[in-house]
Design a protein that fits this description.
The complex is a heterodimer of chains A (about 375) and B (about 80).
Chain A (H helix, E strand, L loop, with lengths): L8 H4 L11 H4 L1 H13 L3 E5 L8 E7 L2 E7 L5 E5 L14 E2 L3 E3 L6 E3 L4 E3 L23 E7 L2 E5 L7 H4 L1 H6 L15 E6 L3 H9 L4 H4 L12 E5 L4 E6 L17 H4 L1 E6 L3 E5 L3 E11 L2 E10 L10 H28 L16 H15 L1
Antiparallel strand pairs in A: 1-10, 2-3, 2-5, 3-4, 4-9, 6-7, 7-8, 9-10, 11-17, 12-13, 13-14, 14-15, 15-16, 16-17
Chain B lengths: L3 H15 L2 H17 L3 H18 L4 H10 L5
Helix pairs in contact in B: 1-2, 2-3, 3-4
Classes of the chains: A alpha+beta (about 375), B mainly alpha (about 80).
């Protein structure tokens, strides 16, 4: 039985009277399937890090929202996203990540593709020893490329290919953080990590969006970044989040050149809907991607980016490791609330929750955005 | 005395089992040469196709020459 159309006007209304998204948005596999088309396919979504494929001539398969995809970096360094299937019989092309010398050969009938996606040869397609046939138009049978865009070390995809250009979709965020459009440096394996969470993807984004929980869930912040030092990020675009005016970390890394005065003590943590939280600070940035596995389980992938390649050196190793441990600790502190809210969404009496009109604005913004997407 | 054809088949099977792509390129190209010498054009193109595919996959510099032979036979674009 279809649950749509669903009246979500109580979610999109003003925060004073609004309720949060209904339980079904967190527990119902039917809603999760509808989200795949209405939320995930239509928009630009964060899928991977550009450094997931660091070598030229390399392919990495991944499953994203149940779809078999692959990242391919060609011999010249261009990174593309393809559906990981042969155009002949739909066989999975790349089972394990690894180098690609010149062509990707389907293990079934050996149709072979260049790293650009072009279909290079179709063995025996016209009979034994004859690799051509008038009905086989190679130009129309290349790998199915997924529309993708790279920004700040993140690979975004638009699965249905119909979204506005990324620059338009994410224009508010791009404008707001244009000062950070500089080379970013990954600097070490310890700054890339992931966590598995028994919670719906939205709960991780909702939690990251607001500062209301900080003094309770992250008491370590109270000593230097009190609740009153935080503010909401409010834009018209698919974003929300929080900022602080007292960023002054104990660990001192080289700072980005040329930042404006705002960033001397300021830091911001915006969400770009649907599934990424980013951190903008004067010495390093981070990306926190939430990847849905099921309606009740998600993978959180984090990568830290530094302002200078100098931080890659052994002299900085201990500092890098302490920074990664610190961030991981913060994100792990959030897991119990995400998992707790997930369990709570099975309570039949929960009505989506009552918002604080002062503190929950980012959460409400996100809920309203999801509700509008699902109602469209 | 070992049958050369049987020895080639065994070497091909062994190369397949080992995933030895340079050997597969070389052995299938050799099989194509033997077929050509025997006047068996169909078999030649069959083996050339396999040599070409493994040359593409392994990045062998022989790929372009193998492609040219197939194209000259009207078997490749």
């Amino acid at each position: 039985m279809s649950v749509f159309p669903m009246d979500l006007s109580h979610v999109t209304g003003g925060i004073e009277t609004a309720r949060g998204l209904p339980n079904a948005f967190y527990t119902d596999p039917t809603v999760f399937e509808v989200e795949k088309s209405k939320v995930w396919a239509r928009n630009w979504v964060a899928m991977a890090f550009t450094t997931d494929v660091q070598e030229n001539g390399y392919a990495k398969p991944l499953t994203f929202l149940g779809q078999p995809l692959m990242l391919v970096r060609d011999a010249e360094g261009t990174l593309r996203v393809f559906q990981n299937i042969c155009r002949h019989r739909g066989m999975i092309l790349v089972a394990e990540e690894g180098p690609i010398k010149r062509a990707i050969r389907c293990p079934y009938h050996a149709w072979s593709y260049e790293m650009s996606g072009a279909l290079r040869t179709t063995p025996h397609v016209g009979g034994p020893g004859n690799n051509r046939h008038d009905c086989i138009n190679r130009a129309s049978l290349g790998l199915i490329e997924v529309r993708s865009h790279q920004w700040m070390g993140i690979v975004f995809v638009n699965l249905d290919g119909q979204a506005p250009a990324f620059e338009e979709y994410a224009g508010d965020v791009l404008d707001r953080y244009a000062e950070f459009e500089k080379p970013l440096y990954r600097c070490g394996d310890e700054g890339t990590f992931e966590m598995s969470v028994q919670g719906n993807w939205k709960l991780a984004i909702e939690n990251g969006a607001e500062s209301y929980h900080l003094p309770w869930v992250h008491p370590g912040l109270n000593s230097y970044s009190r609740l009153e030092d935080h503010y909401h990020i409010d834009t018209a675009g698919p974003t929300c989040g929080q900022g602080t005016t007292v960023y002054d970390p104990a660990l001192k890394f080289p700072k980005f050149d040329g930042l404006s005065e705002k960033w001397a003590k300021g830091a911001e943590y915006p969400m770009l809907f649907p599934n990424i939280m980013m951190g903008f600070q004067n010495d390093h940035t981070f990306a926190f991607i939430v990847i849905p596995e099921t309606q009740e389980r998600s993978t959180e992938r984090v990568q830290l980016f530094y302002a200078s390649d100098e931080v890659s050196g052994d002299d900085w190793r201990e500092m890098r490791e302490r920074n990664a441990v610190q961030w991981r600790g913060v994100f792990e502190e959030d897991i119990f609330v995400v998992e707790g809210m997930q369990k709570g969404r099975h309570a039949s009496g929960f009505d989506g929750g009552k918002f604080s009109p002062v503190m929950d604005n980012p959460t409400h913004d996100f809920h309203a955005w999801v509700a509008r997407q699902m109602s469209a | 005395m070992t049958d050369p054809r049987a020895a080639l088949d065994a070497a091909l099977l062994d190369a397949h089992h080992r995933g030895d792509q340079p050997a597969l390129v070389r052995l299938y190209a050799h099989a194509a040469d033997l077929a050509e010498a025997a006047g068996d054009r169909e078999a030649m193109c069959f083996y050339l196709t396999h040599a070409y595919v493994f040359a593409l996959e392994s990045g062998s510099e022989d790929a372009d020459a193998l492609h040219a032979r197939l194209k000259a036979e009207g078997r490749e674009e």
